[in-house]
């Protein structure tokens, strides 16, 4: 039996699986951070730290873009579920934070705070 090509095939498979593993680990780290950043952005909105919330949300969106790039050649990992969970967390944060982060909403909020202190 001729096994001349088996080593080359094995090395190709190992390289492919190593690349897949590396992409998965990178994506896991990024998506965990997205979830953490989204939660912290919502907390910042509740503390009326709107600039901080905006920065956290921007970083979360950047991480999601990096995740998509890292998994572009690995759709099986992209659709495994953990990326969807991070996207969902960032979407909830965006929806929750949008009214507070907009400059118009901040102006209205500050005017309301000023009027409340005058009462």
Structural account:
The chain has 119 residues and is mainly α. The chain has one domain (6-118). The protein has five helices and no strands. It has helices at 6-46, 50-70, 75-78, 82-101, 103-118. The protein is rod-shaped and about 80 Å long. The mean pLDDT is 85.
Secondary structure elements and pairings:
Layout: H1 6-46, H2 50-70, H3 75-78, H4 82-101, H5 103-118
Helix pairs in contact: 1-2, 1-4, 2-4
Count of individual domains: 1
Average pLDDT rating: 85
Largest sheet: none
Rg (CA only): 22 Å
Percent of residues in helices comes to over 70%
Number of helices: 5
Classify the beta-strand content into a percent band: under 5%
Q: What is the strand tally?
A: 0
Anisotropy-based shape: rod-shaped
SS-based structural class? mainly alpha
Report the order of strands and helices.
Answer: HHHHH
* Sequence stretches where pLDDT stays below 50 over 5 or more residues: none
* Distance from first to last alpha carbon: 93 Å
Question: Which properties best describe this structure?
Answer:
119 residues, mainly alpha, 86% helix, 0% strand, rod-shaped
Short summary of the structure?
This protein is mostly helical and 119 residues long. Helix content is 86%, strand content 0%. The protein has one domain.
């Amino acid at each position: 039996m001729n096994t001349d090509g088996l080593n080359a095939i094995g090395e190709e498979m190992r390289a492919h699986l190593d690349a897949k593993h590396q992409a998965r680990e990178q994506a896991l780290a990024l998506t965990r951070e997205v979830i953490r950043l989204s939660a912290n952005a919502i907390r910042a909105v509740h503390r009326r730290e709107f600039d901080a919330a905006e920065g956290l949300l921007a970083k979360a969106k950047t991480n999601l873009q990096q995740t998509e790039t890292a998994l572009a050649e690995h759709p099986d990992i992209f659709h495994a579920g953990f990326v969807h969970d991070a996207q969902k967390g960032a979407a909830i944060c965006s929806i929750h934070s949008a009214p507070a982060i907009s400059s118009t909403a901040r102006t209205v909020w500050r005017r309301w705070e000023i009027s409340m202190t005058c009462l």
